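Appendix B. One record, verbatim.
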Amino acid sequence: MAETGATLEWLANGDGEFLPSEPKQKETVLTDEIIEKLERLGSLKEKGLITDQEFNELKAKLI
């Protein structure tokens, strides 16, 4: 792997890609439901009911 840059899967059994591809960005689709949940999270944060860390963790799960 270190010499060629080939993936372990390809070296071990010839499956998959020889060279790893760039990780694909997950496309986020913001539905009305997700937007509503984000707004509720923002409201909870503004009221001090959740911390910044909790807000960011919950937001990451949504998007």
